[in-house]
Specification:
alpha/beta; serine acetyltransferase, domain 1; UDP N-Acetylglucosamine Acyltransferase, domain 1; five-stranded parallel beta sheet
Length: 267
């Protein structure tokens, strides 16, 4: 309760303010997109409202309308503040690591890796609520529309960048720690028909290059680099670079935070 005579401090949200400023500028620069920018961003009250609305428009389909899906998405982001916190951290990660990204608004409305990851966070919330059928539906729509297939049970931290994203597959028991960067075509998969805990565990600060395949219940340590096109079948120690088919250790990671540096030249 606010005491009489004391005004509540306004909520300061610099990321949302920057997104709105960009949306206003883009609407002036490109009138053909003005209506859409107003609907998705400028007419929304807050970041989480815009996120739920955008995902509903992307993923609504013949089986479940955008309006019906919006109710589910809004329930999730309203019920679990961690989803919104993670979405902000992912946005910052993409802005900081992707040289092609010049604003917070770009990944929010244009980058399917960012959008797929946020939809997964909602699917994971539904999974943990026991609403597994609906979680699988969201997974299916993301796979169809955005070409990213993340099992709803997979556990993914925050501050994640999935760059370009096409063809990324993350299995049911996979764990991706905070601050990881993943490029397109990456698979975190199993090795066969075994059940139980069967997918990789990725340590914080690790970068996984394009087309890399990591198979089985193995551990990729903190702050590692996995070379593009590599096939990793065994544990990788912390701060290590691996590359090849099958992947072999080729030296140290080369920096404290490979996921931030995004340096993919190993020699």
């Amino acid at each position: 309760m606010v005491e009489l005579g004391i005004k509540a401090k306004p909520v300061v949200d610099p990321v949302w303010a920057a997104m709105r400023a960009d949306a206003e500028n883009w609407a002036l620069e490109e009138s053909a997109l003005a209506g859409w920018l107003h609907t998705v961003v400028l007419d929304q009250a807050a970041f989480q409202d815009a996120l739920a609305f955008l995902l509903s428009q992307k993923l609504g389909g013949p089986e479940m309308s955008a309006l019906s899906l919006h109710k589910v998405l809004y329930e999730a982001v309203s019920s679990d503040s961690w989803i919104v916190d993670a979405a902000r951290a992912d946005l910052s990660a993409t802005y900081e690591r992707d040289p092609a990204c010049t604003s917070y608004l770009e990944p929010f409305i244009f980058f399917k890796g960012y959008q797929a990851l946020q939809a997964h966070r909602v699917a994971h919330w539904l999974w943990n609520q026991g609403r597994k059928t609906l979680a699988q539906y969201v997974q299916s729509r993301v796979s169809e529309v955005l070409q990213v297939d993340i099992n709803p049970a997979a556990r993914i931290g925050k501050g994640i960048m999935i760059d370009h994203a096409t063809g990324v597959v993350i299995g049911e028991t996979a764990v991706v720690s905070d601050g990881v960067s993943i490029l397109h075509g990456v698979t975190l998969g199993g090795t066969g028909k075994e059940r139980g805990d069967r997918h990789p565990k990725i340590g914080p600060g690790t970068m996984i290059g394009a087309g890399a395949t990591i198979l089985g219940n193995i551990s990729i340590g903190a702050c590692c680099r996995v070379g593009a096109g590599s096939v990793v079948l065994k544990d990788v120690p912390d701060n290590t670079t691996v590359a090849g088919v099958p992947a072999k250790e080729v030296g140290e990671a080369g920096c404290d935070q490979p996921a931030m540096a995004m340096d993919q030249k190993f020699w």
